[in-house]
Amino acid sequence: MICPCSGMPPGTAYDDCCRPALDGESWPTTAEALMRSRYTAFVRGNEDHLFRTWHAKTRPDDVGVDDATTWLGLEIVSTTGGGFDDVTGTVHFRARFRDHLGDHVLEENSSFVRRAGRWMYLEALES
């Protein structure tokens, strides 16, 4: 099965891409890899991964996944920082999804910080 995040590189199998992060076997090493794993967590309904990877300062009490939403694809538009030696980074992405109102695109510039050596999602930045 191809990974829902579109893979790094594209077409990468789920077992070789996001599954180890979602199963808690490893931690994404870049902000982009964390973004991809979080998208995959939404696709697969993995609330534990979303909770673990959301910075405690900004994490809501309920990180629940809406079962009525079908995620259709992820496009990484750009990244700033977020590499192996960085402590902050941003990922600009577009995620296509379908709900009871139709098809939509969620476009966001997400802010990430490295905390205790691990990348964490911090917040959506204002456009």
Task: Please render the helix and strand layout as text.
Elements: H1 19-22, H2 31-44, H3 47-52, E1 70-81, E2 88-99, E3 102-115, E4 118-124
Antiparallel strand pairs: 1-2, 2-3, 3-4
Oligomer: single chain
Helix content: 10-25%
The Rg value, from CA coordinates, equals 14 Å
How many E-type strands?
4
Q: For the largest sheet, list the strands in their spatial order.
A: 1-2-3-4
Strand content: 35-45%
Number of helices, counting only DSSP H or I runs of 4 residues or more:
3
SSE string, helix = H, strand = E? HHHEEEE
Molecular shape: globular
What's the gist of this structure?
The protein is of the alpha+beta class. The chain is 19% helix and 35% strand.
Task: Explain the overall architecture.
InterPro entries: NTF2-like_dom_sf, YchJ-like_M. This is UPF0225 protein. The chain has three helices and four strands; from the N terminus they run H-H-H-E-E-E-E. It is α+β, with helices and mostly antiparallel strands. The chain has a four-stranded antiparallel beta sheet with strand order 1-2-3-4, covered by helices on one side. The termini are far apart.
